[in-house]
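User: Can you predict the 3D structure for this chain?
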Amino acid sequence: MRSALRRALRGVRWYVRELTDESAYDRYVAHVRRDHPQAAVPTRRAFERMRSDRQEADPRQGFRCC
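Assistant: Here is the predicted structure, written as structure tokens:
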């Protein structure tokens, strides 16, 4: 019973992280470590800054009002 509850909670956590794109940094870190092992991994703050700069520079990335 407890394992089923834990599994369900992990599923909900995964879903919310994917829905809100909270897991984007984790995917980026995995990509950098796998494909560019010599490159430095940016901090989460630097990653979020790069991502928001890229979104604002490219109108195809979607509208951002604030």
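The chain has a mean pLDDT of 88. The longest helix spans residues 2-19.
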